[in-house]
Automatic annotation (TrEMBL), chain A:
Record carries keyword Nucleotide-binding: yes
Species the sequence originates in: Roseivivax marinus
Family: Belongs to the ABC transporter superfamily.
Residues in coiled coil: none
GO cellular component, one term: maltose transport complex
Keyword Nucleotide-binding found: yes
GO MF annotation terms: ABC-type maltose transporter activity; ATP binding; ATP hydrolysis activity
Alphabetical list of SMART domains matching this protein: AAA
Keywords, in A-Z order: ATP-binding, Nucleotide-binding, Transport
Protein's UniProt name: ABC transporter
Source organism, top-level taxon: Bacteria
Residue stretches making up the ABC transporter domain: 4-234
Amino acid sequence: MGRITLDKVTKSFGEAEVIPPLDLTIEDGEFAVFVGPSGCGKSTLLRLIAGLEDVSSGQIRIDGQDATETPPAKRGLAMVFQSYALYPHMSVRKNIAFPLRMAKLDQAEIDRRVTGAADVLNLTDYLDRRPGQLSGGQRQRVAIGRAIVREPAAFLFDEPLSNLDAALRVGMRLEISELHKRLQTTMIYVTHDQVEAMTMADKIVVLRAGHIEQVGSPLELYRTPRNLFVAGFIGSPRMNFIEGETAARHDAHTIGVRPEHIAVSQTEGEWSGVVGVSEHLGSDTFFHIHDTGLAETITVRADGEVGFRHGDRIRLSPRTDAIHRFDKQGLRIG
Amino acid sequence: MARAVTPRRKALTTLAAWAVGLLIFFPILWTILTSFKTEAQAISDPPVFLFFDWTLENYSVVQERSDYLRFLWNSVILAGGSTILGIIVAVPAAWAMAFVPSHRTKDILLWMLSTKMLPAVGVLYPMYLIFIQMGLLDTRIGLTLVLMLVNLPIIVWMLYTYFREIPGEILDAARMDGATLRDEIVHVLTPMAIPGIASTILLNVILAWNEAFWTLNLTAAKAAPLTAFIASYSSPEGLFYAKLSAASTMAIAPILILGWFSQKQLVRGLTFGAVK
């Protein structure tokens, strides 16, 4: 079991309030992702849940039990760190066994669990190596192995993939998702990468300056962002924001249209502009359009290869049902 | 761009380095040579360098007159004991300063170091009285304690710089893994800092071995280490230079050998953290 509740939790470092009063519940078995720009307090929030930092006020409950004053080891949570934080002087086997040794399990049980974890994570051949002799991806697996042997109530991941190269990151992302499907254990995952958040999460928590901007499933956040910040943060490339007269025609201060919701054409369309940079990805093409009179740049996505060249004047038509409207305060209308 | 090193420049630098090295080593070399001379040759004018009648007589006389092994044993106990005690006290202290610093940590470190700048003789009188009161005069335990305290600032400083190099996330991981503070220090921090702790131990053994102020002033016969052994041969009267040299050679030999074999560790230890 691993239901985690934060009740009016705050954290200050000296005078600086990093987390203003914050309420949040993560259900048992849920994969929750904390996402936000750097410095938004997401790592601090994770460390508060872990017990590595003390809350300034408020309460943290794990499965209904008040854990606010409980030391990290007694909370039944396991954590995977950005730097992997493996013990360099121990073999892989000893690294994975360390939490079990600390829990004073008998040797036979330790061996059984270590072998099991190594098997799941494809580490069996590396058990007698030192972390220094492993690649980044293998080290990350050892760190995960050290977390799963404890059979924790919840896993905490602190930007675990940011030290890996792009290809490996995609692979590990799938592995972690699969691990979650198999173990059905609560996972809290911190990242600044919205793609990781969208692909892995059951529930995304978008944070800015210690505030929760919105909580919801990836598609909820994509379809109905609550404000301009979430609208701009979720989705890649970024949503286009248009103000002024065009927005007013939709009874809004600002309207937002995602690049994938704008069709391009040589002849027909509500808006027009000049093609700037084009990014050809094969499956998609992204055009950055200037001189539209709407915003400095409008980004649009086209399927496959579309043969517009730099400097071509083209027409754009937004999908009317996919226009997001925001008021003067940046909050969603409707 | 790397600086161009001409052969001429290289030769000059090498020569200069050797000159400085020999200059520093010369007194020790002279002591060793003198220990093999007769008393007459030891004070001959002009002095003889290598061409004299080599003799081991001084060594046998010194061994006869005083029990070298007893002094040696005391030195080993004092240097070893004070170092072990010092490490036991300094590891938790350095841990606290490195990983849970307060805004006063820097001040405390500097204050500790400042005690090394006080002339030891300034506290000789109170220390002597305390020793008499507590019955510690001329005891190994008393002297071990004093040597430990004298060198503690240096041990804490060295360990502090080593510990600071250890990433905090690893200690966080240990805490998440259920390690108590003791587990954390014993199973994670100390093994990771072994190279640093080794050079700290080494340097401290050498410092304690060579310490002469407190060892001479607070011992008489029972707890006297090799420093007292040497001092007993510096006599205002009579011809004792060769024997004094023999005693000195015997006293510094163990530490010289230890230093020779561990020079790499020592240099690494002393420059650690200075170069990144």
